Structures are given as C-alpha cells and as structure tokens.
Amino acid sequence: MSTPTTTPLAQLTGTYTIDPSHTRIGFVARHAMVTKVRGAFNEFEGTAVFDGADPAATAVRVVITATSIDTRNAQRDEHLRSNDFLAMETFPEITFVSTAFRQTGETTFDLTGDLTIKGVTNPVTIPFDYEGASTDPFGNPRVGFEGAVTINRKDYGVTWNAALETGGVLVSDKITLEFEVSAIRTA
Predict the structure, then answer these.
(1) Alpha-carbon dihedral of residues 62, 2, 186, 70, nearest 10 degrees?
(2) Are 92 and 67 in contact (CB under 8 A)?
(3) Which of 69, 112, 145, 147 satisfies CB 3.0 to 4.6 Å to 125 for a cystine?
C-alpha cells in the first residue's frame, strides 16, 4: 500500500464509490444527561462524482439502511427501530443528496445537501477534512474524508423522550452525525 498523500482536491476528478468495509457512518447522542451513546449504521451505499475543474458540480448521494442501526445494545436498537424513533418499517432508508460543494481551505470543504430521516427532508452543511489519497494493495485509487455535523432530531419528527426524576430528559435533542469515509475511484 502506498503512503497517503495530500493530492490537491482539484486533482481528484472522477467517480467514487464509498467502501462500506472501510467507512463508518455514526452518531452520538447524550443519554440521561450524563453520558454519550455512540452508534453506527452498518449497511449503506454511496457515490460521489467530483470535477476538479468545476468543484461546485460535485454530486454525492448516500443511502443508509435504517434497520442496520447498531449501538451495541439489542434492546436499545429495537427501540430506535420502532415508531418512537425512526419508524423503520415505514421509512427503511435515510438519504443524503448533495446540493452544493464549497472548498474552504487546502484540505477542507463544506458539503451541503438534503438529509431525509423518517420522511422529513432538511438541508444540512457538513464540514469535511480531506485525509489524503493512496493506492491500496489491489491497485484501487482511494481517498479519505472525515466530517461531522450536529442536527436536532426533532427537526426530523423524532420526538420521543422520557423525563428523568432528577430533571432533564433521557435522550438529547441534538445528535452529532459522524462520517469517516473511504472511497474508491471507479474506472
């Protein structure tokens, strides 16, 4: 495997497919006002088309299988799949479709798009760091990106909660979405 390089973003023109075995799409929520619960979605697919000559024309689409939610606690995961939270029988997918790309620095950019959760679509802007490019042992050109954005789950109709005896609530309204992406350039 070659050493990752910081190839300028403008030189990354191509179509890329997210590698799910080397990518993490996760989230963090406050629990009981005192700790954080981390989770991830284990099934998703995505593509990105990047034009170094016209970065604004970048197009990204990600589809997440909502039932693949995993917080390492089966009982909690079943509750998250229920109508109290994500209503996954009715809304089996979470999607992101980009609407704008803006380079903010040599290795940073903002990706704006429409995020749809539980049938509700809202615009979000995710700041990303470009982590580099390399060729893997199988000859695949790869790029890596990391980003995160905080959303309010109530903006997506995810409103269930429980009051705590000591004050506060069981689940925070603010949820941080985390993206650690490895993508392979396709021929």
Answers:
(1) -20
(2) yes
(3) 112
The H or E element containing residue 74 is: helix 74-81
Contact 113, 104 (CB under 8 A): no
Do 35 and 168 form a contact (C-beta atoms < 8 A)?
no
User: What per-residue confidence (pLDDT) applies to 2?
Assistant: 46
All domains in the chain, ordered by first residue: 9-185 (2.40.128.110)
Give pLDDT, residue 170. Answer: 61
What is the spatial distance between Cα 130 and Cα 187, in angstroms, rounded to a whole number? 21
Q: Tens digits of per-residue pLDDT, 112-124? A: 999 999 999 999 9
Higher-confidence residue: 7 or 77? 77
Backbone region of residue 173 per phi and psi (left: phi > 0; alpha: psi in -120 to 50; beta: other values): alpha
Q: 20 in helix, strand or coil? A: helix
